[in-house]
Amino acid sequence: AGTLYVVATPIGNLGDLTPRALDTLRTADAVCAEDTRRTRQLLAHYGLQRPLLALHEHNEEAQAAQLVARLQAGGSLALVSDAGTPLVSDPGFRLVRAAREAGVRVSPVPGACAAIAALSVAGVPSDRFVFEGFLPAKAAARRQRLQQLAGETRTLLFYESAHRIEESLADCVEAFGGERHAVLARELTKLFETVLDGPLADLHARVRADADQRKGEFVLIVEGAGDDETARIAEGRRLYARLAEHLP
Ligand code: SAM
């Protein structure tokens, strides 16, 4: 049987495609892409023209069986997403699962990932961290999610887009307190790369005051709750549990 290669592509700077990724894209029988138009442009930049197959959220389940059959027949496929590492807040896990279930070899060609790139320059405790991906789009669900994370002691990583960054920062201030240390990494590896750090309230104020700081793509990193905070939240839970005994 063939191999399914899961290939990371750049998150901005096109110099970040690894030589092995280039080689894999050149030699695979076909490239499965989230958006074939974007991937065609990316490949053209490296002087490649390859057969492309669309694999996105809406057709992945249906396509997976066909692609696995192709792999079983001996073909090799490269899976890419629009940017960074496939499956990380991107499509691909259904195909990878189907391939593994069928006993097909799945092999990584690692490279850029926005979350890890941001963590590597954040200067926050990074031996334990939680990747939360995108927060819910609806305000109520987003606030609830953040509330649930308020006592988390590990470093928190979020993906965010330009049109929601200000709101999300405001909600983080509400849930974690304005004093909590955070890092906002914007447009990593691109022309307007900016990494801001400080208390959440300050970051929110800077983003609100400066429209340029709301442009592009973001990774928001929030330090975990300290011991004081964990103790405070635990105390709150204890009080609530005692109170709940007396509630109807
Ligand atoms: N698979 C990708 C990866 O490995 O990072 C993530 C794909 S997800 C659909 C896109 C999100 O990743 C953006 O909304 C942003 O939060 C983050 N992102 C991607 N490129 C970025 C960059 N250059 N700088 C900061 N964040 C970025």
Report the sheet with the most strands, covering strand number, pairing sense and barrel closure: 5 strands, parallel
Order of helices and strands: EHEHEHEHEHEHEHEEHEH
List the strand order in the largest sheet.
Answer: 3-2-4-1-5
Total DSSP helices? 9
| First-to-last CA distance | 62 Å
Strand content: 15-25%
Shape: globular
What is the residue-averaged pLDDT?
95
Percent helix range: 40-55%
Class computed from helices, strands and strand pairing = alpha/beta
Hetero compounds:
S-adenosylmethionine
> How many β-strand runs?
10
Low-confidence stretches: none
Family: Belongs to the methyltransferase superfamily. RsmI family.
Subcellular location: Cytoplasm
Catalytic activity: cytidine(1402) in 16S rRNA + S-adenosyl-L-methionine = 2'-O-methylcytidine(1402) in 16S rRNA + S-adenosyl-L-homocysteine + H(+)
Keywords: Cytoplasm, Methyltransferase, rRNA processing, S-adenosyl-L-methionine, Transferase
